[in-house]
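Mods, move this if it's the wrong board.
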Amino acid sequence: MTKIKAIGIGNCGGHAIYRCKKNELKNIEYLYISTVNSSRKYPLLGDSRKFLLNDATEIQTCFKKDLLFFVEDADILFVIAGVGGDTSAEILEQVSKIANENEILTINVISTPLISDTDYSIKKAEKDIKRLNKLFNNNCILDSEKFYNIFSKYIEKSDSIKSIYEYANEVICRLISCFTYNDESMLGVEKADFKKLFSYKGTMLFSLGLASGENGAISAAEAAIKEEQINAQAVFVSVRGGENLTIHDTKEVGDLVNKKINDKTNVIISVVVDESMPKDEIQVIIIATGC
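Not the wrong board. Structure tokens:
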């Protein structure tokens, strides 16, 4: 069984791992890191570990030993934070450095501000992402505006900003759930496949498509793959659907992916029937590495 651990940093990361816990994702251990001034309570996290810092440097000076103890046996470590604020990106940088130095397979899940945020936040986020992309390969950048558009059909004009951010947290949960092995997997993925997927140098692309109905599979795949060509060394395709998911649906997704890649691209596919989803709904997630 793949051992997954997730570290939520600051408000964005805290909300994300709280949502994962609420969604009852299986076989994941959580750690919450925040500064003393911005720490919030997340009741469902229960006995999950918590580090409260005065500033980002305390990861190295005060919490390094505890952090290593938490991550040392992880097969995959997700480090989740929003950029554009004062400290979260800096804490993520320190955490990811320590994990990478100790050869932990680490995926940084980085959420950008919505356009409704301040110019300062948006410009700071751009600087944060540029710096983190220079330091690490496995940065999964979640464009909040893009995913807001994906889930916009579920959002009413009267919905609060809090409910909109809930959809952003849902995207992160869906990303992490791609890597959780469970008995519902029709086509599971081995730990060695994950290591290979994230061994390639270069940037990472992540996209999600949702659709339902008669042509749900191809519609979800087309929503996830906007590019004319995916120039990547490896592509991970997660197909998750309700109980009406068929082999024809998965073939349609696979055929579209094959049209978008070159012959040398390593393709890894996971297929899951999820009875908690509406019967005719299909979700396609694409992760491309070594771009």
